[in-house]
């Protein structure tokens, strides 16, 4: 009879290995603190779930630079676009309720819904709203609600019909936010509740997510909340010292369905639990959504173009990448992962699920230091997937520094090679007037004492001073330094009058949500 001891020893050894792997890497807390200090990051929150259990949910640093209040496991952070999966889950619940189908036409639920092309209006489905394949360009329409807006969601839905497509319908991938706002309106129309209430009652409550907020009023009423920070060097965002930002920056409430949630590490862990359990609630409390819906939301349905990352982060380049319903599906070094990033000005989030290993990781940071966020995220992935340890924070820092250096070089080249010593064609007063873009709406340019000011009326606080650059092109320096600077180019008609205005972000690294390039202003009433 063979000796059973070696087999038993092997089982015991494997159990020990599994138990050890459930914990973060040795010295992980010190590693997080060191990474944060290297970039003056104020605070972070990290959650890890393995085999259905929350093995780590902890805060680090402070809620606000220069203040003593510490981040803990219950400190809420805006989650940015990681919340797109919540809007997808809300729709999945309605599908399970029999009130909605993924392939229902949007117009059958929202009678006022229109796209630029009538055929696309007729054919757009609920599924299409989530897949970034509508034909709209990258970030199209984001200036309707970013960095803030006085518009309603109904206003945004009505503006859609005026946004020209960049490509044909369902022909390719281009990330957008605006159609997730429409998806939130579908949730409201079908459920009879506004999106905020539905998410709070049908998702947060069953999951016992006690800190999670779906409305910014609740977020601002939560004392234990992180404040946003960024580096706002006038030349290029991402350079300079860390600065506190106004916490009203971001999507605004109208954009909540695209990324306006806030929650803590503890609640992020609960969200990871239900994802890994394919919709089953912890402790056998029933289901949030069906297993069929879980698989539907994780099934990639549009290919995402792969751009190889340069050294020293080459290994994060996936071999395949697709977008599912609120999730990116790709591989990391040959292992399938379900992941998504989130960014609201001054705050970042990153979450990744590894279904075959039953692991979920989330990281939140109250600054824009992507190198610390992603670096620590990939160090955790390597740990749980059994790869050799690597200093991913340093690798991402090298990549980010090169990206910013390239941006500065591009700015310098623009200033030296392109600018011409010219005068504007008209007197300052002749540029003043009211102008309107088909989808954005009206702006005004005023002249006082030879100085020009521009005002985006439906974006509160978006006013700035125009300074002549060359020919009939000016540059706007916004009163709010957190808003990306832009060029403002006037075109004249045959009579020498203003015919149109076009804009462009000055920084080559500007966030795509500043989609100035899609604006075409025409004169309404000239002074």
TrEMBL record:
Beta-lactamase-related domain residues: 28-369
The organism's place on the tree of life at top rank: Bacteria
Alphabetical list of InterPro entries matching this protein: AmpC-like (IPR050491), Beta-lactam-related (IPR001466), Beta-lactam/transpept-like (IPR012338), Peptidase_S12_Pab87-rel_C (IPR021860)
Pfam families per the UniProt record, alphabetical: Beta-lactamase (PF00144), DUF3471 (PF11954)
Residue ranges occupied by any Peptidase S12 Pab87-related C-terminal domain in the UniProt entry: 421-522
Keyword RNA-binding: no
GO MF annotation list: hydrolase activity
Keyword set includes Membrane: no
Stretch forming the signal peptide: 1-22
Protein name listed in UniProt: Serine hydrolase
